[in-house]
Amino acid sequence: MIETVKRTNGILLPLSIKGADTGPLQGLKFLAKDLFDIAGYPTGAGNPDWLRTHEPANCNAVVVDRLLRAGGTLAGKTVTDEIAYSLDGINMHYGAPENPQYAGRVSGGSSSGSASAVAAKLVDFAIGTDTAGSVRLPASFCGIFGFRPTYGAISLQGVVPLAPVFDTVGWFARSAELLRKCGTVLLEQQSTAYNEQTTSPFKRLLVAIDAFQFIEPELGAALAEALPSIKTHFQSVEAVQLSAYEWEEFVMCFRLLQSFSAWETHGEWIIREHPHFEASIQERFEFASRVTIEQKAEAEAIRNRIVKNFAELLPSDTVLVMPTTQNVPPFVNAFPHIFTQERMANLKLTVLSPLAKIPQVTIPVKHSPTQSTGLSLIAGQNQDLALLSLAETIAATIDKFERSKFEVGHSGSAQVPN
């Protein structure tokens, strides 16, 4: 039976399934978002009505089995926003997992419990899902590493979907090294090509200038201060404007396609069972029910251009850098309009990778001695393992920079990159 959790560490159902005695993840513990099937246990998807209307799983999700075979030990299931249809990190039925680096503020969703538990050092790593930003945003909010892979690179068999047109598996860790190690297990198809590389393929860095100008000044200043040390890892650095690539169209295009896919996936169940959803999630499903085939077709045409444009912008030697999130997380008890406002602002940053079907890693960058925000590196399709390796290198550089900055008591005013 699923246990009720009220603003705790995000662990919904403690359990223990020991992994293999050998493997790259041997001795490490992980958690799985309550969208992943675990044999013999119910998958609740964050909603009691989903739990009530579905039988316990017959087998584990493919991803869970892969991690177990690699030596990881599953320690439990974690809280998720209902049907993963939110970035807020609050579940009216099971509570809001605590944010270890921002007391009283949300951890972000929908992989809220997974991010919270990793940040709180309860396990070594955790898996979640990322449709609109549900791994990258909580990773940024909680001050840990998070990864969304190339669309379609990892099996979703045994995972409750939200919108299959964008859904991916993602994962969290407190170090870039472990994030990469998980990638070598989960991205088996890329491992051969990756293992043959002797040096990083990335020589060119693109800086998304307008994205940096879009975020809160304190966060922007911290990221801008870190950028010069990051640039030293590339042979060339160029500024780009996302506005040149239909940036203003991103959110509505994404929202229409996600909504159509979500209703196509869950509409029949919703009509039949009349589940009780939190108000904002209910509103999203109601909106989804009204999206027309014509609107979907128009949005698909925009997405096709985005895929093409970013395939050209990000060849195999190029990485794009931009902020992961626009703001520090809102307070748990903030007014609903604050969540709506900040969710829409963050979507402007997070939907690029889903629309373009490309991988993105978020790295924590401190804006104070104890609090951080996310800096994202984005590469072309199927460059996942190379990107994770680059993130490990960049994270070491950022760590060195931050040690110097905060130990010396740095005070200065960095400018938005240009």
Describe this protein with a few key phrases.
11 strands, 14 helices, globular, about 15% strand, disordered N terminus, alpha/beta, single chain, about 425 residues
Could you write a compact summary of the structure shown?
This protein is α/β, with parallel strands linked by helices and 418 residues long. The chain has 14 helices and 11 strands.
Note down, in words, how this protein is organized:
This protein has helices at 48-52, 62-69, 112-119, 136-142, 176-186, 188-195, 209-214, 217-231, 250-273, 279-290, 293-313, 336-350, 352-356, 384-408, and strands spanning 11-17, 29-33, 73-78, 125-130, 145-148, 168-173, 204-208, 236-240, 318-323, 360-366, 372-378. α9 (250-273) crosses α11 (293-313). It has an 11-stranded mixed beta sheet, with helices on both faces. The relative contact order is 0.14. The chain is α/β, with parallel strands linked by helices and 418 residues long. It is built from 14 helices and 11 strands.
